[in-house]
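Risk register update: the risk of archive-format incompatibility is retired. Evidence:
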Amino acid sequence: MADKTCLITGVGPGTGAALARRFTEGGYRVAMLARNEARLSELERELPGSRSFPCDVADTTALAAACDALESELGAPAVVIHNAVGGARGDFFATPPELLRRNFEVNTMALLHLAQRFAPGMVERGHGAFLCTGNTATYRGKASFAGFAPTKAAQRILAESMARSLGPQGVHVAYLAIDAVIDVPWTRKMLPDALDEFFCRPADIAAECWHLVHQPRSAWSFDVQIRPDREPW
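Archived output:
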């Protein structure tokens, strides 16, 4: 891809930062979106050619402004990775409607806005990729995930619809579900006795995302699940 800009939402200290590092290593100009401006600035200093765009993807106006800025500075993205996530724990009795609505804005509506903004250019150029990261809440509504799972399921279905439309036009859409506890400081603190093998490493997740985005057209994946070898399923 000559127009090697990669847009990543939800650039936090785990998967998002690992994605930014992997795609920078692969020669992309990386546009990083997240709410934490200080963290983005630190990564921007670390990763040559990257640019940070502090933004709440649930805010349609802010997201549109960030997209305007990144396109002006880095060019239209050839790859969009929607890694931002709105989550919550609690059964449906304990889930405020406004929380479910916000999670839907982050997980599903932001994907729609990004696709409507950047897919036409990808189709015109004849190539491009959209990738969403998810988890097992995508496929099942456990009792304690009432404020979260419905929005991830909707996200996956939207991505599947996009894939059926965009695939024949040369644009790859894929969904990566991470069935694991991701290895970040707060999960280590929460599970101090867990073995290293229990966790899924962000760099390994990023490597699989890189692979999905660069699959040959004759063997594109859509629905992909990854988990450590110790994870029961």
